[in-house]
Design brief:
Layout (H helix, E strand, L loop, with lengths): L5 H16 L2 H20 L3 H27 L3
Helix pairs in contact: 1-2, 2-3
């Protein structure tokens, strides 16, 4: 699916329409699923790389959030 194709335009309109009506938490989940679908439309064999990237980013963000909270709570 190319960015300048009719398929992408239809995909974008559907995802954007859903995105507007969803709560923030569900918006993030929708974007993850839509990203995986878009990536799989190109070549589904590389979808495993997308899952590795999503998982790595999620756990790195959680770790950074925890260290930032510990930094705020630490006495100066």
């Amino acid at each position: 699916m190319l960015f300048n194709s009719l398929n992408f335009f239809c995909f974008f309109i559907i995802i954007y329409g859903l995105y507007i009506f969803l709560d923030h938490r569900w918006q993030n989940r929708l974007l993850i699923v839509a990203s995986c679908l878009f990536y799989a439309a190109w070549n589904w064999k590389f979808l495993f790389l997308m899952f590795i990237s999503i998982t790595t980013d999620f756990y790195c963000a959680r770790f950074m959030s925890r260290t930032e909270l510990q930094k705020k709570d630490a006495p100066t």
